[in-house]
Amino acid sequence: MPEPGVHIGSGKVRELYALGEDRLLLAASDRISVFDVVLPTPIPDKGRVLTGLSAFWFARTQHIVPNHLLAIRPDGRSLECGRLDMLPLEFVVRGYLAGSGWRDYRATGAVCGHALPPGLLESERLPHPLVTPATKAATGHDENISEADAAELVGREQYTEAREVALALYGFGAAHASARGIVLADTKFELGADEAGRLMLADEALTPDSSRFWPADSYAAGGPQPSYDKQFVRDWCERTGGDKAPPGPELPADVVEGTRARYAEAFELLTGIPFARYLDDPQVVRAA
Ligand code: Q0N
Fold first, then answer.
1. 96 by DSSP, 3-state: which?
2. What is the maximum alpha-carbon separation in the chain?
3. To test ligand 1's pocket by mutation, which of 84, 188, 201, 204 has the most ligand atoms within 8 angstroms of CB?
4. Is this structure's pTM higher than 0.85?
5. Other beta carbons within 10 Å of 197
6. Cα of 130 to ligand 1 centre, how many Å?
7. Helices marked H in 67-146 — which ranges?
8. Percent of the chain, pLDDT > 70?
9. Phi and psi for 195 in degrees, rounded to 5?
10. Buried residues in 75-105 as b, exposed as e (16+ CB within 10 A)
11. 67: which DSSP letter?
């Protein structure tokens, strides 16, 4: 096994290591977070689903923007990536009215400062996708900012290019998902610049952890939609009570298995590749 490198950061479910000066290793664990709390029970192969999906999208969106992926490790859960100068922004793209966007709209008639027509329903498709940038606050919690403030933060030219890239990536992902029975309600991108100053897609992309995926067959605006991947876990947490405070509950075996199957199914629907083939050879997602 290759050396993992120097540990330089942790997310809720992923780890970041330095590989020398100019490369990183992004490793996705099997941890799952629900209602913003990481549960003590892992979902086997969840990290491989997320890593495989990211690599799949990186291979298929290079015509929109180049990306940081250099290699998929044979373990299927880690990616070697080029080290970039990250933009201090998350580019959230929303095609539907859900989550904090819906709460914002109900309270203000707008989503992050974008005025919208009255009378929209929860989970309704928006007239056009919105970019709602957020900063990664030191507290770890993201803070929405206006596009004007985001443009000031990174410069108007860079912001304009990045927001167009984010919209094009969302459009590509949403069209691909829709043709396969999945609604891509919203998603988040992270972008950086390489040594030549070229804009590059980084982090993970178009995965269940960075996106809201809904099953298209049960989609109906007018209320919340079930999450493609996490709904079993959410339902079970709601049924068994608990206060949504850490530490979360241990999951029973049937909830673990059902959730694992949902992740594998999302991988197969979106990629058209049997998940077992990915486990056998992670490089299968790179072929066009
Ligand atoms: C980077 N983050 C935030 C892993 C993901 N290619 C890159 N070059 C330089 N820095 C980063 C990347 C990437 N991707 C991205 N931190 C550093 C997202 N992290 C949070 C922790 O888990």
1. strand
2. 57
3. 84
4. yes
5. 8
6. 24
7. 99-108
8. 98
9. -65, -25
10. ebbbbbbbbbeebebbbbbbbbbbbbbbebb
11. B
